[in-house]
């Protein structure tokens, strides 16, 4: 009997050695998520914000990108609620369609969330007092950690105790994410920033002191108001690498 168990154990070990790079699908999706998030966050300035003429970002840009987060988890939650007992997420539904639907929505959320992170990293340094940048950045990361803790605990409670089948409980977690994203947009809209201009490309602009097309990104950054309400001629600064 001992030999039989040992033989099965050795066979299992051999299979692990033969296929060491064959992770499960959730683990693979999570790896891709981390890589995509980091790359988008690192390059959101030249690839996203600069073409939209939102560099350097301001409170209006933070409000916009936070608002863009809301429909993504809300759509995923609605899909889970409506399709939980049907052909998409029901017990007999094909897994491929369910995985493709959720993966597409969640990766879109990943991209928008990474841009939000880059905008916040810039603003937390911009709004900090000159002699308190380090403590302000430290408070920012402490807040991040607190938000992750609250999100982890709340999602666990919702997933465990929300009524309904598994898809509905997963949908409750995503619905809560949509609520928190909406709250973030409301808070960002209340930031006292003297520069309320918002551009979405060369042809769309709104807010106080609308963006002039002929000024270009450099001119817009030069005309942006400083933290003390006075104009500054400093060139646009990239998102600080230390806060990414």
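Sequence proposed for the structure above (244 residues):
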């Amino acid at each position: 009997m001992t030999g039989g168990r040992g033989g099965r154990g050795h066979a299992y070990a051999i299979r692990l050695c033969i296929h060491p790079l064959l992770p499960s699908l959730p683990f693979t999706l999570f790896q891709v998520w981390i890589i995509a998030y980091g790359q988008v966050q690192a390059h959101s300035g030249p690839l996203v914000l600069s073409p939209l003429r939102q560099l350097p970002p301001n409170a209006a840009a933070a409000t916009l990108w936070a608002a863009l987060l809301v429909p993504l988890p809300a759509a995923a939650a609605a899909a889970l609620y409506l399709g939980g007992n049907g052909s998409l997420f029901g017990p007999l539904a094909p897994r491929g369609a369910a995985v493709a639907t959720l993966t597409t929505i969640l990766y879109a959320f990943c991209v928008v969330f990474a841009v939000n992170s880059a905008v916040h990293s810039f603003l937390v340094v911009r709004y900090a007092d000159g002699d308190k940048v380090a403590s302000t950045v430290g408070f920012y990361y402490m807040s991040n950690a607190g938000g992750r803790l609250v999100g982890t605990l709340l999602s666990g409670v919702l997933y465990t105790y929300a009524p309904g089948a598994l898809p509905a409980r997963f949908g409750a977690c995503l619905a809560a994410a949509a609520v928190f994203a909406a709250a973030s947009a409301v808070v960002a809209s209340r930031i006292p920033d003297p520069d309320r201009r918002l551009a979405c490309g060369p042809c769309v602009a709104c807010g106080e002191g609308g963006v002039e097309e002929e000024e270009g990104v450099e001119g817009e950054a030069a005309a942006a108001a400083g933290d003390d309400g006075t104009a500054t001629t400093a060139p646009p600064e990239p998102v600080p690498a230390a806060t990414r």
